[in-house]
Amino acid sequence: MFREPMSKNKSILTIKIIRAIRLSTVSLINLITKLVLVALFIDYLDFNAEVAYFLILFYLFFQSYVLHMAYTVKENKSLGTFISFINIYILLFILDYFIVILLGEYTALYSYVALIASSITHTLRYFLFAKFMFKE
Fold first, then answer.
1. b/e string for 38-74 if b means 16 or more Cβ within 10 A?
2. Nearest 5 degrees, angle CA 43-CA 45-CA 50?
3. Are 61 and 94 in contact (CB under 8 A)?
């Protein structure tokens, strides 16, 4: 009849699961945006890949920041969180950019390479956010 209060470990686990779901949701929105923009501007309209992909990543930085601050790190907004976000994003931005530009030379569709690069950077982002932005 009476419910036992949630233990601290269950509470922490619940928070971590919610964060993982939020991070994955924001990352999925960013991935869809990236793939649509790459397919449109690089694959379909044939814009210069180096310039167009840089501009796409630059736009995604702002979109990602807004979405992550609104949904992923709701309870931990601070200057330290912002600096961690910037550092992680710049590192992954550079990695993503070079993967796409280097591998894009071997395929006709940059969308496929962007998907591969995004898979790599999403995995790294998850672990880096867990280590540097979600400290308990």
1. bbebbbeeebebeebbeebbeebbeebeebbbeebbe
2. 65
3. no
Which residue has 């807004």 as its token pair?
66
Contacts 24+ apart (CB under 8 A), 15-24: 16/134, 19/72, 19/134, 20/126, 22/71, 22/72, 23/68, 23/72, 23/125, 23/126, 23/129, 24/126
Alpha-carbon distances of 40 from 21, 52, 92, 106, rounded to whole Å: 28, 10, 23, 19
Asked whether the predicted pLDDT for residue 5 surpasses 70, the reply is no
Is residue 1 predicted with pLDDT exceeding 50? Answer: no
Give the amino acid at 49.
A
Task: Assign 76 a pLDDT band (cuts: 50, 70, 90).
Answer: low
| Calpha distance 82→76 (Å, rounded) | 10
